[in-house]
Structure formats: structure tokens, C-alpha cells
Amino acid sequence: MERPLPVVWRPVAVTACRYGLNLASPAEFDEQRARADRAQLWDKKCSTLLQRLKSGARPLVLDLFSGAGGVSEGFRRGGWLSIGVDHEDQPDFVRRFGEDAFFKGDALDRELIRRLVRRFKPDAVWASPPCEASSTATFGGAMSKAPKLIAATRDLLEELGLPWVIENVRGASKELRNAVTLIGQDWGLRTERARLFEAGQGVQIARCPWLSVGGEELRRRCCLGA
Asked: What is 96-121 written as a DSSP string?
């Protein structure tokens, strides 16, 4: 008599997108982006109010580690002016915002930053220290030897006494304090690009439920690839 073969139960993983059969539609992305645009209108109203409180002067942000100016472009869309600082020439930043809005130098040079604060009197400071040291990506199988600059950046911002925000990658979670994670799908984007944000000196950052609920649903039903 032959013995019956043993029964082996193996769970089958079922993805939220059902392997491409339940992907979020373009209309759902458009709806989320329209929702994000309405949220940005609220931000612009806040900028307008701040401008009135400043007797007509537009609010200004000091953008440290500015790179080509992606953050400054976001502030401009919200009604702000910006001054960028980076240790390398940034022709794209200059093209976008003008030569007078960019300064080449070390963003952690206290003398330089204090001089810019006295000259331009910014309403807030934004800092995006290089993320290489905190990235979860490896370089040829080895972790990066780049210096971690978040703690030094925080010390500088606290000394300035202005409202501030530090932005970095998800791998910097142990270096940032009480950071909030935002993802691209919150704004109806087809890429995640999760980023962490820590704020200080009176600034509060929160993930708006009005955007995050739709963002998480899009994330569940996105094909992000490898």
C-alpha cells in the first residue's frame, strides 16, 4: 500500500496591486494631485498673510545645501523668496533665481551664515544636508564614508534662533528627532521618494490626513519596481 504524500501548505502572497491587475488609475492620481493643489493654495494664503504682517515684504527663506534649487522652487510657488547657499557652483539655481540669490560657500560656515542672516533677515531656514552618509544604498557593497552632517546642521540652526526645517532621506531616521515622513503619492506623484522632516523654533510639520489617506491608497496600488 502506497503511503499518501504529505500535504504542504504554502501561503501565497497577494499584493495590493494584484500583480498589476489592481493598479491605481490615472484618474485617481489626477484626483490626488488636484487635492494637493488645493492644499498648496492654503499655503499661499498663509504666505500672503505673512507678507501683510511684514508691511508688504515677501517672506524669505535661507536655503542651505541648496543644490540646483528644488526646495527654493517649492517656496517660490508658495509665494516666498529664497537665498541659496551651496559649496559648489549651481548654475541652475542662478538661472532660476538670479545671481544675487545664490552664495557659494560652506553651509555650515557660521560666519558666512550669520552674515547672510544679518543682511537678508530671513523668516526661516531650510537645510538639506548631503544624504550620502545616511542613505540605505551601498556603494560597491560598502557603506559610504561621507561625514554625517545632520547634528552639526541642527546645532547651527538652533544657534541662529530662526524657525527651521531639516530634510533628509529615510535612512537618517536615527539622526533626526521626531521627524515626519512624507511620500510622493501624497501629492499625486507616481514616485514615492520618502523624505523625513525635522522642524524647530516654533515650526510644526504634520502629515495632513486630507492628503495622506489618498496618498497611502495610491502607494498600496503603485508598481514601484525594484
From this structure: HH-GGGEEES-TT-HHHHHHHHHHH-
Q: Which residues pair with 168 in a beta bridge?
A: 196
Residue 218 grid coordinates: 495610491
Axis crossing angle, helix 110-120 with helix 150-160, rounded to the nearest 10: 40
Residue 65 corresponds to which amino acid? F
Nearest-angstrom CA–CA distance, 73 and 76: 5
Sequence-distant (6+) residues with CB within 8 A of 127 are 64, 65, 107, 153, 157, 164, 165, 166, 167
Tell me which DSSP letter residue 88 carries. S
For the entire predicted model, the pTM comes to 0.84
Averages of pLDDT over each 10 residues, the chain, 226 residues:
71 71 90 92 90 93 96 94 97 96 97 97 96 69 77 97 95 92 92 92 87 90 70
Return the C-alpha torsion angle 74, 76, 79, 85, nearest 10.
Answer: 100
